[in-house]
């Protein structure tokens, strides 16, 4: 069985898996060429044929979802036990795990709370408040998102708040001197946006510190600190492998280097798919690696196994418009398949209706070739999903939003986690604020602020303050306040006692739900309490799953052993909270129950994944490239990434008008598509996009099945149906041809034809 998995690889892939087991290796190749498959196979090969212990292998993926997929694939190749011993996950998860274990080595309190992106943003929002009047008087505008991203960028360069601020002030002074402007008090009074960002950054750092919290960027920077200064913490690592390397940032590169203590590094990547420049990713890491590891070997893979030739050609036509790009070869032995469709309509509602109806048509009348789960709608940004979701709902199509569902951001989940966070880290104020008045105990915002103010003044946690009140150690507090906070304190104490006994996190959640009568609270306060109650149950399931996984990881650590370092004992509760916070990156939903739904996702979240049918709406200027983006080429690559997710059918569409913030705006076709349509060099080769609705012959449908490696579809008869769609509030009838073409009396010019409307 051992070498079976190697037999499905082509020569280049096989070389990438087998050659150079101890040499730094870069596997560079286009989408769908099997990079992730090779990485997985290489791990299996190192374990099965080179007998590396699984715990000595570190595999880094870009998302939790990708890590789960890799885990699934590896379980098939090397079995569950060995897979569970691998150190596998995102850079964030890896850092969190080791920081928890060795917090004391870098003077970190081991009960730190991981502060997710939403929480960070809330802190920033609060810090922005005092500037409101100043912004109004100076006619300035500063959105929290901009502050978040500036801070994150600075942190990825390992800049602290004070260094950032000093640099801004220095630049401002130099500019004033150059322009002969006065210095001194006036500089202090007139604050630029950058200076305000700097000031907020400094305060933000203080807030995190006070709360004993680390944000996502901190996890990485502290990780670098831990790994570079304490060799003993990385000694277990014999081989590190990184997927999607083109999107790593400077800090992640440093982490990789620190972990590559044995100098065995394998990275896979594709510069054409680098889409995270806006989040400080550095394509330059590829050449940096070759400088740091001069003996690096390179393998190029050139065969695409994912898509039909027509999809690949159209995608390559898009990316090759970037003239500065190094041209690479990528081919497929798949059949040509159907020409990608470019569909243009008048309004975004028609566009959404088209997408919904087309999906329905493909599912109902393609001889069983497709299920709902075979479709993905890829959006440039989340806000575009509203109209699409409504259209799908109207047609009765089940859908789910990938990464947008954000289980861990739901009210009920956050309520319960907040209680547990208070138990684990009483200094984490956001959790205290949330839990203290759930269910309603009549403790108003003002009282909460007072309690927190008291805590800050006396340098204690707010929990310590309310405990003192309950124990009559705060005589100046009114008895009414004591009555109100007493039940909260009782719940926390009871949970704390149970957590001390190392009780399982699932049991803790169950107990909490009982103690605060949470089901009744939901019934009283939420109209959709039933589905929320389901989420509570799901949280308990997640808690028990995490416990099992953590036990496996701990067992692996015990096997790894070898180092004489003192490890902090992590409580099951702490591990559970950490897993929840890291999952809030948004992509760790269970796949069960989603397999039969149409997926709606952003293009960014779809990275590395594939679907039989991909639909990309809104390919207009302003959306592709996104008007706020500073890097047009990165936007082009993003469209390329989106198109190359498709295996058998690709649709791009756009509306000529679109409502933006309540106003109807005219929209042009995306330059990324029009440049392909107008490129004389490409024109003679073939039409990359068809502007008609596909009419599938039996042969087309057989091709689709071949590419998807599915059994040939049944034959289907053509039927003509009339469906209605809405435009300007009026219903319009539309005739649609469903089904395969071989029995059609004559092939219609356009499978969609309407009486009045201009389809
Ligand atoms: P991306 O750049 O989008 O992340 P990738 O290079 O990582 O793509 P994979 O996801 O590993 O590509 O592979 C794409 C598809 O091709 C998968 O379905 C994979 O199983 C299949 N595949 C890869 N190599 C082979 C092969 N040698 N034979 C058959 N199928 C293959
Ligand atoms: Mg991949």
From TrEMBL:
<dbReference type="GO" id="GO:0043138">
    <property type="term" value="F:3'-5' DNA helicase activity"/>
</dbReference>
<keyword id="KW-0067">ATP-binding</keyword>
<keyword id="KW-0378">Hydrolase</keyword>
<keyword id="KW-0347">Helicase</keyword>
<keyword id="KW-0413">Isomerase</keyword>
<dbReference type="GO" id="GO:0000725">
    <property type="term" value="P:recombinational repair"/>
</dbReference>
<keyword id="KW-0234">DNA repair</keyword>
<protein>
    <recommendedName>
        <fullName>DNA 3'-5' helicase</fullName>
        <ecNumber>5.6.2.4</ecNumber>
    </recommendedName>
</protein>
<feature type="domain" description="UvrD-like helicase C-terminal">
    <location>
        <begin position="309"/>
        <end position="608"/>
    </location>
</feature>
<comment type="similarity">
    <text>Belongs to the helicase family. UvrD subfamily.</text>
</comment>
<dbReference type="GO" id="GO:0003677">
    <property type="term" value="F:DNA binding"/>
</dbReference>
<dbReference type="GO" id="GO:0005524">
    <property type="term" value="F:ATP binding"/>
</dbReference>
<dbReference type="GO" id="GO:0016787">
    <property type="term" value="F:hydrolase activity"/>
</dbReference>
<dbReference type="GO" id="GO:0005634">
    <property type="term" value="C:nucleus"/>
</dbReference>
<feature type="binding site">
    <location>
        <begin position="29"/>
        <end position="36"/>
    </location>
    <ligand>
        <name>ATP</name>
    </ligand>
</feature>
<feature type="domain" description="UvrD-like helicase ATP-binding">
    <location>
        <begin position="8"/>
        <end position="308"/>
    </location>
</feature>
<keyword id="KW-0238">DNA-binding</keyword>
<keyword id="KW-0547">Nucleotide-binding</keyword>
<keyword id="KW-0227">DNA damage</keyword>
